[in-house]
What does this fold into?
Amino acid sequence: MDWLGATFMLLGISCLLVGLSWVGRPSPSGWGDWRILAFSCVGGFAMLGLVLYENIWATQPMFNLAIFNSIPTIMVYIGGLLHGLLLLCHLQNLPMYLILVKYLSPALAGLGIVVITAPVLPALLLTAKMGIARNASLSRWVVRAGWALNLLASSCFILLDAETPSPGWEGKDSANTNTNTNTNAITTISHTRREEGEQAVPRSPS
It folds into this structure.
């Protein structure tokens, strides 16, 4: 286990998320706030240190740039990053909508989030059962369909208001899927463990 690499990863991502979260606070200084700049800089330097350490000094690296040997592989990880950010926005803003607009209690808002995310597990089990990850052409179409549903679900945010019925906001976010199934279809078996580690990094915001 590469403990130092894991420490760099958690420190970098956590500091970046703290800095980005604080930007939205009512503050006259905005990005000029020294605390926001400090966390953002620490996070950025930690991620840079992670890249250098994993590729120069680590004896058993969790990550390896050799995995990024083709355009499809690179696009999968970029998609993982974007999907993680998309899930972060959805799961942060939807509870605010339920509490501030629909006037639900925190307990009911949490239950609503559980209802929204519940279809993910059966979908993943079905995907594994069908062996989609072993079929390169089929897995790519699944990812494309998932992104189309993501775009549709994200666009439906503008339709949510105080009069939206429960099935409306429940169905909106249930369209979210993930891109993990495509990584095994386009990379070699020898890189499987590193794929899992590297796929966790771009999706970690969610």
Observations:
- Residues 177-181, 202-206 have pLDDT under 50 and may be disordered.
- Residues 131 and 139 are 9 Å apart (CA to CA).
- The first helix runs from residue 3 to 23.
- Residues 1-68 form one domain.
